[in-house]
Write a structure and sequence with these properties.
With 150 residues, this protein is α/β, with parallel strands linked by helices. It has helices at 11-23, 35-45, 61-71, 86-95, 107-118, 130-135; strands spanning 3-7, 27-32, 49-52, 77-81, 99-102, 121-124, 148-149. Mean pLDDT is 85; it is low at 129-142 and 145-150.
């Protein structure tokens, strides 16, 4: 069973994610509404996967991801956001996120990304331009069609 920490400042979105994940046999072990809460929950619970929004009050998802990975370098963070601009993806990659999913993705895509990242892969949707991958600091490729081991 994959243990997931949900981090998003919108309670209704977290509740919807919880319902989806639990209906698929995953266990939501905590919810956080900002990056500071996420760091505390991640340190206390060591989830298999952390679903992290980028823009939140108090501390954004990129900085929270960096802090979580300083505490636990094995943490697996997936950024889940509405931002498709390359600069946000670059920031996520630099912070150490293992996945990036847009909030307009369908449930099947999100579940696939969670399972792949929980299985020690990196997974990025949607398909980013080839120039992104040749200039970024990661060897990951788009997903679910392709993913690479860490």
């Amino acid at each position: 069973m994959i243990r997931v920490l949900l981090v998003d400042d919108h309670a209704l979105f977290r509740q919807g994610l919880r319902s989806l994940l639990e209906s698929e046999g995953m266990r939501v072990i905590g919810e956080a509404a900002n990056g500071r809460e996420a760091i505390r929950y991640a340190a206390d619970t060591h989830p298999d996967v952390i679903l992290m929004d980028i823009q939140m009050p108090e501390l954004d998802g990129v900085k929270a991801t960096q802090s979580i990975l300083e505490i636990d370098p094995a943490a697996r963070v997936i950024m889940i956001t509405m931002y498709r601009q390359d600069r946000y993806v670059f920031e996520a990659v630099k912070a150490g996120a293992r996945g990036y999913v847009l909030k307009d993705a369908d449930a099947t895509t999100l579940l696939d990304v969670i399972r792949r990242v929980a299985g020690a892969r990196r997974c990025w949707t949607p398909t980013w331009p080839r120039t992104f991958w040749t200039t970024s600091a990661t060897s990951a490729r788009s997903c679910p069609a392709r993913s690479t081991p860490t």
